[in-house]
Please model this.
Amino acid sequence: MVESRSVELILADEEQTLVCGKSLAAALQGEGGAIVFLTGPLGAGKTTFSRGLIQAMGHDGRVKSPTYTLVEPYEMLSPAVYHFDLYRLGDPEELEFMGIRDYFQSSVVCLVEWPEKGGALLPEPDLYLRLRPEGAGRIISLQASTKRGKCLLQRLQQDASLELMGNRTC
Model:
């Protein structure tokens, strides 16, 4: 197990949540892929964060939550991105029927909202992102659980666009 590191950012508004997603997209360049779990209550900004990341990686269309389809593929991006929303998942076994294991390859980015609904069928993420409302904004906590995740956190901490936000390293 890699030594755990975490970063906490204060995001004043939706725009800063998008910027944070864009910063993670920049950190992913050259990494090849990653598994990112996004947790938090409804309306905390999980899809907004994902939209910032996906658009920064080159998608110029609309990014919506895949609440009903479970996964939205962005295969034309490099690396490919799969955006999951497991909120409406009735049973983790449903993931087996959709071939969940085929999506999680080291060369793709998998963003998983509501990962707790997937149970043990999901692999260990590189990064855990926890969003929680705070006044008009939100607080995002990022925690690395793998060597790749730790590298991503280090790159994020060097991102000048995040310096304007309240940055606390734990």
About this structure: The chain is about 25% helix and 25% strand. The chain has one domain: 6-169.
